[in-house]
Each structure stands twice: as C-alpha cells, then as structure tokens.
Design goal:
The chain has 287 residues and is α+β, with helices and mostly antiparallel strands. The chain folds into two domains: 124 residues, Diaminopimelate Epimerase, Chain A, domain 1; 149 residues, Diaminopimelate Epimerase, Chain A, domain 1. The protein is 18% helix and 43% strand. The protein has an eight-stranded mixed barrel with strand order 1-2-3-4-6-7-8-17. The longest helix is centred in the last third of the chain and has 14 residues. It is globular, with a radius of gyration of 18 Å. It starts with a strand and ends in a 6-residue tail after the last strand.
C-alpha cells in the first residue's frame, strides 16, 4: 500500500492540545488535487496542508485544504508548515518563502515559532450591521462598530461586538449561504490593550468554528486601520485571543503597517507544537 508521511501539530499555542490542530503532509508530489481533498476529509481538521517542491524558486509550495475545498491561503497552515519543515530539516531557520495561491509569502522561522507576512491588504465597503448580527445569532444591542470584509490573501467579514456577546455567537449556515458569507470573524476589541477577543466561523468551507485563524487576524488589522481604531501611519502591534469558547485557547501576535490611513502590510506570529506523526494511505485517484 502506498503511503505518505504526516504530522499533526497545534498552531498558535506553546503547549499541546490547545491552539488550532493542523495536518501537515509530506512526500505528496504525485498526488492529484482530489486525492489531497480526500485526505483532508479523512483528517477532518479545519485545514490540512501539503508541503510540495516549488518550481518558482520558493522554499516550498503549499496547497491548503479544508474538508470541503482548497484555499489560496490560510494563516495557521502557513505557520505550521514552515515550523514543521524546519524541524524536519527540510529548510533552515530564518527567512523562508512559501508559494501558495495568494502568491509568494515570506515567513521567518525561529525555533518553534514563525512570523508570516500576509498578502496584499483588501478592505471592502461597510456591510449591513443588522444582517451580520442576525447571521451569528446576535442582536442590535450587541453592535459595537461597522462590519466590512477585510483580508490579506483570504477575506473575512469583520463584525465588532460587545465582549459579553461573544459567548452567545454562532453561525447559521443557511443564512450564511443566502448572504454569500463564507467566513465571519466576530470581534470584541479592547482599545487600551490593543487586544481582540475573537470567534471565527467558516460555514462556507465546512468549518463551523475555528480555534485560531491567522488569515482572519491579518484581516482584522486591515479593518482596524480602516476604522481609525489603529494608527493610519507606521507599524502597530496588536494581540488576538481566540478559541477560548472551544477550550482550545490560542494566541496570535500581529502587526499592521499603514500609510495614508490604509493598511499596506500585515504580519501574524505564533508558536507550533508537534503532537503526533505517522503515515497515511494514499487514496485512489478519482478524477
């Protein structure tokens, strides 16, 4: 039976069984996309990343799958793949370049942690607050700011709410489909500490809730600058706490660089902890 090697790592945490679990698969160069998708369904984690050779001169190429679909980019698979590749001796610590659907992204790895630079920041127009609140089961009194779509390679609706509302949030998949929302980040912002408490729901990609979402954390920085809640000039650090309600506490350390009142660059950093390894059978070719 043909097999490929994999590791399970927890990302955006410095201890096992917290953060966001990730399957990192190696030696899958001969697999087609539908075989990779089948393996992602078998692992049944929010994301599975396949570390592949890059023909474009990057350190490696990453293909990232949820149980339902392939993504052009995602934060915790990028951080997890980089740290795991260095630990396995496939790359040296320091500056790496990841090739993925969002382009060539720089990642800096130091021992068991990595800092990922996101893709080009994007920020959409304001969205109807009432519709977004209803999508996550909240009320008008929970409103704490204007929602909008933002991202750095993968976009999310950013919905600010009062801190006490987070525990009541949930995502209605049918309403999400009707509104065309694949991912929504529900955020309680603490201005003095420059800290966000976040829950991220991804009903459009079969991830009911994600315990740590680097791409959403990057998008949050873009949105914060756009709202004037972080400075419109220079580089500012902020912190994201996520996964608390899922009993998988996660810590994401971020920066956003802005110029002229708009975000121009975002980074997200976190630790990675190895928890399991093995080999898994290669599924039959389907396509």
């Amino acid at each position: 039976m043909s097999t490929v090697a994999y590791e399970i790592v927890d990302v955006f945490t410095d201890r096992p069984f917290a953060g966001n679990p990730l399957a990192v698969v190696f030696g899958a160069e001969a697999l087609a996309g539908d075989q990779m998708q089948t393996l992602a369904r078998e692992f049944n984690l929010s994301e599975t990343v396949f570390v592949l050779p890059s023909a474009a001169g990057a350190t490696y190429r990453a293909r990232i799958f949820t149980p339902e679909t392939e993504l052009p980019f995602a934060g915790h698979p990028s951080v997890g793949a980089a740290v795991t590749s260095v630990r396995r001796g496939l790359a040296k610590p320091g500056q790496l370049t990841q090739e993925c659907g969002a382009g060539m992204l720089p990642i800096t790895v130091i021992t068991d942690a990595a800092t990922l630079t996101g893709g080009k920041p994007t920020l959409g127009p304001p969205l109807p607050a009432t519709e977004m609140l209803e999508l996550v089961g909240l009320r008008e009194e929970d409103f704490a700011g204007t929602p909008a779509v933002a991202g750095c390679g993968l976009e999310f609706v950013i919905l600010p709410v009062r801190r006490e509302a987070l525990a009541r949030a949930w995502a209605d998949p049918e309403r999400a489909r009707a509104l065309g929302v694949t991912g929504i980040s529900v955020v309680a912002w603490e201005e003095r500490e420059k800290t966000a408490y976040v829950r991220v729901f991804c009903p459009g990609v079969s991830v009911p809730e994600d315990p740590a979402t680097g791409s959403a954390a990057l998008g949050l920085g873009v949105w914060l600058v756009g709202q004037g809640w972080l400075p419109g000039e220079g580089t500012t650090a902020y912190t994201v706490h996520q996964g608390i309600e899922m009993h998988r506490p996660s810590l994401l350390e971020c920066t956003v660089t802005a110029r002229g009142g708009a975000a121009t660059l975002g980074t997200v950093s976190g630790h990675v902890v190895a928890v399991a390894s093995g080999r898994i059978a290669v599924p039959p070719f389907i396509g």
